[in-house]
């Protein structure tokens, strides 16, 4: 198994609903190391760069409105198969379809306001980490 880094982001709904501690705790308890952590508010330009694979899709503008609507908490976590394991932990995009026990399954009831994001591939992890963090903000 390969040690990987992935980008986790608690979205504005997760922050305003005070789920930050609960969500970080799940990744810590699973065994991941936190390599970088920050709370910030996306500019529109930065959000469009972060989600550029979705540009042109019908939900793109609404996604950018939502993700820039309040602060988010982003972190880089590291561990064995971090990318696929984190995706399993967050569950499918639509909170109504996400199984109980997953983060979206336990806390989300919407497809857009779905509490959390995790990178879906090594390429998107690299891109998303680069959009959010400077190199010197990530621990060795
Ligand atoms: P995320 O995993 O962050 O990746 C893209 C995001 O776009 C997704 O979670 C949702 O927040 C949002 N999204 C995806 N599909 C839709 C949709 N059909 N309608 C509204 N928002 C969506």
Strand and helix map with partners:
Layout: E1 3-10, H1 12-16, H2 20-30, E2 33-40, H3 44-50, H4 60-67, E3 72-80, H5 82-90, H6 103-107, E4 116-118, H7 122-132
Antiparallel strand pairs: 1-3, 1-4, 2-3
Bound molecules: adenosine-3',5'-cyclic-monophosphate.
How does this model look, in words?
With 140 residues, the chain is α+β, with helices and mostly antiparallel strands. It has a single domain, classed as 2-Layer Sandwich (Alpha-Beta Plaits), CATH 3.30.70.141. The protein has a 4-stranded antiparallel sheet with strand order 2-3-1-4, with helices on both faces. It is globular. The protein starts with a strand and ends in an 8-residue tail after the last helix. The site of adenosine-3',5'-cyclic-monophosphate has 9 residues, from helix 4.
Keyword list:
single chain, 140 residues, alpha+beta, Alpha-Beta Plaits, 4-stranded antiparallel beta sheet, 7 helices, binds adenosine-3',5'-cyclic-monophosphate
Indicate the proportion of strand residues. Answer: 15-25%
| Strand count | 4
How many helices?
7
Q: Tally the structural domains.
A: 1
Bound molecules: adenosine-3',5'-cyclic-monophosphate
Q: Helicity, in percent?
A: 40-55%
Low-confidence stretches: none
Element pattern in H and E: EHHEHHEHHEH
Report the structural category: alpha+beta
Would you tell me which CATH topology applies?
Alpha-Beta Plaits
Would you state the CATH class? Alpha Beta
Sheet with most strands: strand arrangement: 2-3-1-4
Taking Cα atoms only, what radius of gyration do you get, to the nearest Å?
14 Å
Query: How is the main sheet built?
Result: 4 strands, antiparallel
Q: Which homologous superfamily in CATH is the superfamily?
A: Nucleoside diphosphate kinase-like domain
Please name the CATH architecture: 2-Layer Sandwich
Average pLDDT, all residues: 98
Outline, from the CA principal axes? Answer: globular
- The N- and C-terminal alpha carbons lie at a distance of 20 Å
């Amino acid at each position: 198994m390969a040690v990987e880094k992935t980008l986790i982001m608690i979205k504005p709904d997760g922050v305003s609903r005070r789920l930050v501690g609960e969500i970080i705790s799940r990744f810590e308890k699973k065994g991941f190391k936190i390599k970088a952590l920050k709370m910030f508010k996306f500019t529109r330009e930065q959000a469009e760069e972060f989600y550029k694979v979705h540009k042109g899709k019908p939900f793109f503008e609404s996604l950018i409105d939502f993700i820039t609507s309040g602060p988010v908490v982003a972190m880089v976590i590291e561990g064995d198969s971090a990318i696929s394991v984190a995706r399993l932990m967050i569950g499918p995009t639509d909170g109504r379809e996400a199984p109980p026990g997953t983060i979206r399954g336990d806390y989300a009831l919407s497809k857009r306001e779905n509490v959390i994001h995790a990178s879906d591939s090594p390429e998107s992890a690299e891109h998303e980490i680069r959009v959010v963090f400077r190199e010197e903000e990530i621990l060795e």
